[in-house]
Specification:
By secondary structure, the protein is of the alpha+beta class. The protein is built from 9 helices and 17 strands. The strands form 4 sheets. The chain has a 6-stranded mixed beta sheet with strand order 8-7-6-9-11-10. Strand 15 and strand 16 form a beta hairpin. The mean pLDDT is 87. Bound molecules: FE2/S2 (inorganic) cluster (FES). FE2/S2 (inorganic) cluster (FES) binds next to loops.
Length: 383
């Protein structure tokens, strides 16, 4: 009997999404999920430590790994749940994913409150010249279309950063992008494609010809700018947490993967150091703080939080991972502030009392619930 040659790829289907992908044998389930373009939480960047990437095999599941046992528990394992980043594909399989995180409540701030300070000397641009300003946040991205000749804003668009499926915070994205060139470009390309789609949409709405868009100024924390420019951000993930660059020269947008805005130049604003990025620099400039007398504290409370204290033009700044603190990251039952998250904990008549967002069945606990729980434990002398 002639032996059948083993296929080099396996077929993975996701019946709930009517989706199927052909994946190289030996890849992880997490890679198959990403290849299918589906969303799955992966906070540790695939290191098998966060337990968020669980998937359920609808058939024969592979033998559980030590991480599966540690993070999922016997009952879930018996039901076919495995960690997607640890499960290696050796044969065709059918998979179910946990219900997607509800993002209906994601509100993105796109407007300024209070007057921005105009730059000391704004360079004049010829009439009919357009530009864009893009704020690349770890969680959200906001794009503004600007009439440079008129020095006015003509449109704004915002969306959730598509890199979220690669990891929710800067550390997990650093880990993901550092795996190899393919992953680095995946992180860059999904972001570039989303920015381009938003800007092309704004141009269409305002009847601005794409060739009139000459400049795209970009700000973001250093990890976001590294990823946008296709530079491995690894040095930001290890001590002493310094970026490869703080001040990148302008590049042709096509060099980083833009296709339709072929005439535009991408202008990254300079960052400061560590995780203190050009978004903080832009905030200080917009408020005119470098020129203002007195003491001011500038706080950008984002997923990557940044703060700068200014005093008569002098400034000192710091950054911190603010987002995960509010989203229960690395807490076994932690979750974002979404429906079902325990947001309030106290005691009433000697009994534990809870409230969840939206009054839904408890799904996990978010930052405000954690703070309440810690306060209660302290009060009761249990902590
Ligand atoms: Fe799989 Fe964290 S355990 S991504």
């Amino acid at each position: 009997m002639p032996r059948q040659r083993q296929r080099r790829s396996v077929r993975v289907s996701f019946p709930d999404y009517s989706s199927q992908v052909e994946v190289e044998r030996g890849k992880s389930v997490l890679e198959a999920v990403r290849q299918a373009g589906l969303a799955l939480e992966s906070e540790c960047g695939g290191r098998g430590t966060c337990g968020r990437c669980r998937v359920r095999f609808l058939g024969q599941a592979p033998a559980p790994t030590g991480d599966d046992r540690l993070l999922l528990g016997d009952e879930a394992i018996a039901q076919g749940w495995r960690l997607a980043c640890q499960a290696i594909l050796t044969e065709d399989g059918r998979l179910a994913l946990p219900p997607p995180v509800v993002e209906g409540g994601l509100r993105i701030l796109t407007e300024a409150y209070g007057p921005a300070q105009p730059p000391a000397a704004a360079p004049a641009a010829p009439a009919g010249t357009f530009g864009a300003a893009v704020d690349v946040g770890t969680t959200t991205v906001v794009c503004y279309l600007l009439d440079l000749g008129e020095a006015s804003q003509v449109g704004v668009a915002s969306f959730a950063n598509p890199q979220r499926r690669l990891g929710p915070d800067v550390v997990s994205r650093i880990l993901y992008a550092h795996q190899g060139r393919e992953q680095l470009l995946e992180a860059r390309d999904c972001l570039v494609a989303a920015i381009e789609e938003a800007l092309v949409g704004l141009c269409a709405k305002r009847r601005v010809p794409l060739r009139a868009l000459s400049r795209i100024a970009v700000v973001g924390n250093p990890t976001m700018l590294h990823l946008l420019l296709g530079v491995d951000p690894w040095s930001l993930g290890v001590a002493p947490y310094q970026p490869t660059f703080t001040d990148a020269p302008p590049v042709a947008a096509t060099e980083v993967g833009f296709r339709r805005l072929a005439r535009a130049e991408l202008v990254p604003l300079p960052a400061v150091a560590g995780h203190l990025g050009s978004d903080a620099v832009a905030g200080l400039l917009a408020l005119g703080l470098p020129r203002r007398r007195g003491l001011f504290l500038f706080i950008d409370l984002g997923t990557n939080g940044e703060m700068v204290l200014t005093s008569d033009g002098d400034a000192v700044g710091a950054s911190c991972a603010a987002g995960p603190a509010f989203e229960g990251v690395h807490i076994s039952s932690g979750m974002s502030a979404l429906p079902g998250a325990i947001e309030w904990v106290d005691e009433e008549d000697g009994r534990l009392a809870l409230a969840t967002i939206g009054g839904a069945e408890p799904q996990g606990i978010c930052g405000s619930g954690l703070v309440d729980a810690v306060a209660l434990l302290l009060r009761r002398g249990l902590l």
